[in-house]
Amino acid sequence: MLRWILGGREAQGVVEKNSVLFSGEEQPKNCFTELQVLKGHFDIVRYLVQIDDFRFASAGDDGLVLVWNVETGERLLELRGHTQQITALVPYTITQEDLTHTSLITASSDRSVSLWDPDTGNRVQTVSDLQSSVKCLLVLSCHNIWLSGGNGLCVWSSGFQLLSKTEQHSDTGVTAMVELPRNYVAAAVDREIIIYELKVSSTESDVSIIAFRHLANHQDSIRALINVSDKLFASGSHIGELIIWDSVEWTIHADDQIALEDLPYDGPLEIRLGSQKQSEVSIQHLVSDGELVVAAVGSGLYVYNVQNKCMVACRKLAHDSDILHTKLLSQSKLMSCSEDGSVKMWELQEPLLLAEPTTAGFFGMWSFGRSNKQGPSPKRIPEALGLKTLELMGDLIGHSGAVQMFLNFGERGLVTCSTDHLLIVWRDGERQSSLRGQELFQKLEENQGLS
Fold first, then answer.
1. What is the pLDDT of residues 176-233, one digit of tens each?
2. Structure confidence by residue, pLDDT tens digits, 230-283
3. 181 with 230: CB under 8 angstroms?
4. What distance in Å separates the CA atoms of residue 320 and residue 340, rounded to the nearest whole number?
5. Which residues contact 352 (CB under 8 A, 6 or more apart)?
6. Taking CA 213 as the corner, what is the angle to CA 212 and CA 216, rounded to the nearest 5 degrees?
7. Other CB atoms closer than 10 Å to residue 358's CB: what's the count?
8. Three-state SS at 87
9. In terms of pTM, does the model score above 0.85?
10. In 3D, which of 101, 16, 12 has the Cα closest to residue 51?
11. Which of 416, 371, 417, 388 lies closest to 310 in space, CA to CA?
């Protein structure tokens, strides 16, 4: 019901006061029983970043950056300046003389990049007339510099001075970047990962960046690139390839690509017969806590143990549509959001029975990732380990469009953004009830009772 109630798409120039809504008690393990709808954007909201313990920023296709208070839902600032959609948004924290201040860097299709002060709303720095739109941003706090990726890769100072840039790449350009040890950066460019060496002088006044090595192990365009730990990073492609890399040697950490097609299927057989659509095997998002890697593959979730080099859990039909964003809340709990408009909470549980050894058999007809690639047979899930199950703990349904991503503020709540132009703050109903009770008693004490 809430999907339709909250689905208004009218443009809102001013934030309206929204009454608290309740999602019901049908999900006993779901603490998010209250929600608050935030209106202010008039197009798709794609990005959320946390500024501090209480504030976050949202941005999207309307070119606006809005700063919010997660505790109250109040819109604090509206950052206007870009004329086209926002393509990247990152926090930029600088520490000087024991004082720490977090700014925001935004990139837009209008071929400009700007630095904003979320305390005042001022645009502190801006660079315009770039050769291409910036698709990704990476802050290197250790050197107080940041990188932008578009048709090429550029290195910038904190004062937005161009320090170095690379050659122009082909159509796709740089779509993702991660920082590696020893002043190296890995960048995804189409189906390649390019390792760049960053040379910084002792005074940090002279910086240069050069392509050092090309890793061409993927067979299709890379859709996700993340750091797993200080020693490992991971990449996922459009055809379901997931590779764990050594961050120092730049070699494949696992013996072979993870064979997702070997895992048992948990959905109805009748809807999966025949060839798979490409989107069903595409890795849209990766997230890791250093021990586990969660891959969003089409509408499914796959959990991989880095140390044991094996898949430990999977759910091939976790959502009704492609999953766009995931997060590990702990070693046993994770969340995911999807084009189907929902946010789901999952719990990793030990299996009741040990997993049966997998065989090609009936499921071998489904092509997935690099299953047709010549080479050694992929590793199977060890029988002794067994596959854990991903059990649904809660289903947050409030958006009428695809949920692009979410931010977790712990006890203060969960923030989601969507193509329906809305943001929703999901709150722990019991905590909110307790806070209201405390506020009531405090007012009674101040007024010396009801008399």
1. 999 999 999 999 999 999 999 999 887 667 889 999 999 999 999 999 999 999 999 9
2. 999 999 999 999 999 999 999 998 754 554 555 554 443 333 323 345 567 899
3. yes
4. 6
5. none
6. 155
7. 17
8. strand
9. no
10. 101
11. 388
